[in-house]
């Protein structure tokens, strides 16, 4: 049920406006089906390979993998059947720099932006290599920030824990 204008209620195929009579600028679309098809869900848990930990965010990449950020565990890739955990490897400067990831967003450049306790991590989906981008200390001190890449490939960083603030990172010009 979609209505443009004031609030409406839908009862079967009848529509009743809550406050006033409809006007000519209001569009009503409704569908009544007394026999809706059943919804089927598949649940994935620890027995299916889902790692223990808090899944804080997830996103689907263009190659159809689902990527999960699991707090205090790392980055997890799901191909529809199996979970693969990507963790920090000591001494490897191209692996994830840490496992404390609490946010994830997709990039227009075949990669993922990861919010971590030590800064932003750029994760290249073609090479599976990571690069840490430091943040100001007030961002790194808490797990209270989110990420969004806009259509101009700029990364917006919003700190919502404590005193709110907004940073803009131009990834094209570093």
Summarize the structure.
By secondary structure, the chain is mostly beta strands. The protein is 2% helix and 41% strand.
Distance between the termini: 46 Å
The residue-averaged pLDDT reads: 79
What is the spatial order of strands in the main beta sheet? 5-6-7-8
The global form is globular
Order of helices and strands: EEEEEEEEEEEEHEEE
The overall strand count is: 15
In percent terms, what proportion of residues is strand?
Answer: 35-45%
Helix content: under 10%
Enumerate the spans where pLDDT stays under 50 for 5 or more consecutive residues.
Answer: 1-20
Biggest sheet architecture:
4 strands, antiparallel
Q: What's the total helix number? A: 1
The computed structural class is: mainly beta
Q: Nearest-angstrom radius of gyration? A: 22 Å
3D architecture notes:
It is a single chain. The protein has one helix spanning 137-140, and strands spanning 2-3, 8-11, 14-17, 28-29, 55-60, 66-70, 74-78, 83-86, 101-106, 111-116, 119-124, 130-133, 145-149, 154-159, 165-170. With 174 residues, it is mostly beta strands. Strand 7 and strand 8 form a beta hairpin. It starts with a strand and ends with a strand. The model is unreliable at 1-20 (pLDDT under 50).
């Amino acid at each position: 049920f979609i209505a443009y204008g004031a609030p409406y209620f839908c009862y079967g195929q009848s529509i009743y406006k809550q406050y006033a009579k409809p006007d000519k600028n209001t569009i009503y679309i409704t569908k009544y089906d007394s026999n809706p098809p059943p919804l089927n869900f598949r649940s994935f848990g620890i027995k299916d390979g889902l790692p223990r930990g808090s899944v804080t965010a997830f996103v689907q990449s263009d190659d159809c993998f689902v990527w999960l950020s699991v707090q205090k565990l790392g980055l997890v890739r799901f191909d529809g059947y199996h979970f693969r955990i990507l963790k920090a490897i000591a001494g490897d400067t191209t692996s994830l720099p840490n496992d404390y990831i609490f946010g994830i967003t997709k990039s227009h450049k075949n990669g993922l932006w990861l919010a971590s306790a030590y800064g932003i991590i750029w994760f290249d989906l073609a090479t599976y290599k990571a690069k840490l981008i430091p943040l100001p200390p007030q961002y790194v001190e808490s797990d209270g920030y989110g990420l969004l890449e806009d259509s101009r490939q700029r990364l917006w960083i919003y700190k919502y824990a404590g005193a709110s603030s907004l940073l803009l990172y131009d990834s094209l010009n570093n």
